[in-house]
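Side project, low priority. Logging it here so it doesn't get lost.
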Amino acid sequence: MVAVLAAASLPATADAAPAKILLAAAPDISVTNVKAHLTQLQSIATANGGNRAHGRPGYLASVNYVKGQLDAAGYTTVVQSFTYNGATGYNLIADWPGGDADNVVMVGAHLDSVTAGPGINDNGSGSSANLEVALEVSRRSLSTTKHLRFGWWGAEELGLRGSTAYVNSLPAAEKAKIKAYLNFDMVGSPNPGYFLYDGDNSDGVGSGPGPAGSAALEQTLQDYFTSIGVPTEGTDFDGRSDYGPFIAAGIPAGGIFTGAEGRKTAAQATKWGGTSGTAFDVCYHRACDTTANIDDTALDRNSDAIAYAVWTLTTAPTTPPGSTVYSDTFETATGWTVNPSGTDTATAGAFERADPAATSSGVALQLGTTVSGSFDLVTGAAAGSSAGTYDVDGGVTSIRSPAITLPSTGTLTLTFSWYLAHLDNATSADYLRVRIVGSTTTTVFTQAGAASNRAGAWASASVGLNAYAGQSVRILVEANDSGTASLVEAGVDDVKINQS
């Protein structure tokens, strides 16, 4: 982590540590394996002048170690070079095959140390935890809905140089594909705190919130710590680590931090254990930042939290649960087509997107009010000289939506508002009908007429669409006045498809 001249005191939060309860299907990451990677990084530093700093042989040896592990595990790796202070630096990028290439979750950590020491907590800890999570992805042959990418950054200690070079190298279209960046810098501090980057700025200190989506990343990590009974605190997006260039590019970010040179308060020591009045990491940026400078419990918890975030974010539906797949309130024209098959027989009252006029004949027929806004789909919007001037006459009128691509996962539900109105000269052959046109055509809603007065009144309908998951479909709305003229009027508003 980049040093600052004066360390701001970190916000306060707590600990109690009941038994670990992993959520979802995320694995328990072996802290023994994570520490084995730390041992390798320590050995590399020892063999190369005591550090793994930018431009020094220990850094490139660290890159080669991580790359070798990932290549053997089936990742596609790329080493990106850049120049800073007259020395060549390197970023290592590793892509796990599969997932939506337009929906990337990226996990990163800086791999370099300062020149003063081997940098085992800062940031061998985040680099090694991410590496072990990546290897567990491979061992389990994880199938992802989103594309998973890892990054190990060079020259972070000199001002986020590697991550900045990476983000700046991406065309705008590639930046837009990265939907989440998770940063793990110092996750094993010897006097640890449990800090999450404050994506929603709920702490209200320092910098504002991260880009839209950052709050959800914070909540994902929070969910894990809640599950194991470990309270967390927010930590500001203060620009000291590699989330910086991602946030600057508008990419949502989140991550974990166990503390650097800031001192643990008495309240924090009560909550988390450890020593109050002492730095979270007394060896921060010093030669003593060795494998002896790690809290195993913090390293274990945070490695599992990283895995939980990776599993949760990359295997979730690409359309987030509870999100809207399609919505139309008809306030603007969105491509609905009248008489799309050229087979309509109605001689009046054709469906249209319009601002309707109210009509009545003893009872309300065409409704002049919509569910939202001023427009809906309506049969003959004008009032005319009498109630029966622009009602449906002579058969069927239809209107069809543009193509809608449905996600392949989750529960899909079509909802809409509707009314059918008629007088007592209607029959059961008259109707309002909604159909789904995909690989097959299915009628999903029908309201039949009857030989009685039916006043127009908005009602709601809900229809399951799971049979069409993964398909491109269209919504077809039809109204029919069969036989004699029956003063049939119909309307549809606020069409929506949700995934849950």
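Brief comment: Confidence is low (pLDDT under 50) at residues 4-24.
Revisit when time allows.
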